[in-house]
Amino acid sequence: MSRKPKRRAGWLFPFVLLLAAATGYWAVTRYLGFADTPIAGLHAGDTLQVEQGDSFATVLGKLKAVGAQAHVLEWQALGRQLGVAGKLQVGEYALEPGTTPRMLLMRMREGKVISHRFTIVEGWNIRELRAALGRAQPLRHDAAKLDDAGLMKALGHPGMHPEGRFLPETYVYTRGDGELAVLRRAFDAMSLALAEAWKTRAADLPLQSPEQALALASIVEKETGVAEERPAIAGVFVRRLRIGMRLQTDPTVIYGMGAAYAGNIHKADLLADTPYNTYTRMGLPPTPIAMPGRAALQAATHPAAGDALYFVAVGDGSGRHVFTSSLAEHEAAVRQYIQRYRAARSPATP
To answer: Which residue in 24, 108, 246, 303 could disulfide with 235, CB within 3.0 to 4.6 Å?
Structure first.
């Protein structure tokens, strides 16, 4: 008895191929959709901190911890495609809504971390600077427990007074940076700016060193907020130094008063002798009294020509000054200032 041969299942192989193709297409489509679809669960202000030694799996865990959806297999596949695994750079990364997995991994591969800014304001003294550093976030406060002497030692300049030594500018830092790193850059910037100003200084200045130029620049910085007046202010003080006349500048007296200054100077303060009282002592104070900006450094080393030996505020709210060459002219300008001051504060006449 003969048997019929079994019919081969010729349809099975094409079906398997079709199924595999369909599955592959679905996987590729889903993968591409994942890579360029905004990450769900992100909120404004979210950040991701990649630290030294973090593995890719650790970073994905941190991503989940902030509420973002992180499907491990898809992230790993995208990481392999972009060549990110093992190349994530340390730092803080923004997770603003709309960020896609591809965008985030590219940022971490290229090290596009969040930047923070700290600005040293022209005219700040060292106490004000250190107080502002203490409030800065997320700056690491690695200098908070150091006194001024310890601070300068940590910066590599033991024995140097810190006043005036940090250039007023905006400094960019990233999470993990400390106060010492910012101050070190500010110190180097001031050293360079002072050296450049001193190198190109005007001839015959009555200044013996860059340090004296820095002290004069700090006084100029505190005496006026009007930029174009700085050379004229510097000119007055340079002429006084040249003829042996006391500088008689209030900002130095205020600096010498320290915490005792309560907003006003009295006659007793002008008579109280301190190393910084330029009414009682000749010449420049022993150190700068504030952080001068570049314009003040240039003014101190390139003072305006003229014969003025005095100046007083106009008193009209502009911040400008009247410059005079004789004591009589100065006293008249002072009387006018007092009149304007009183008129501005007297009640209006019905």
So the answer is: 303
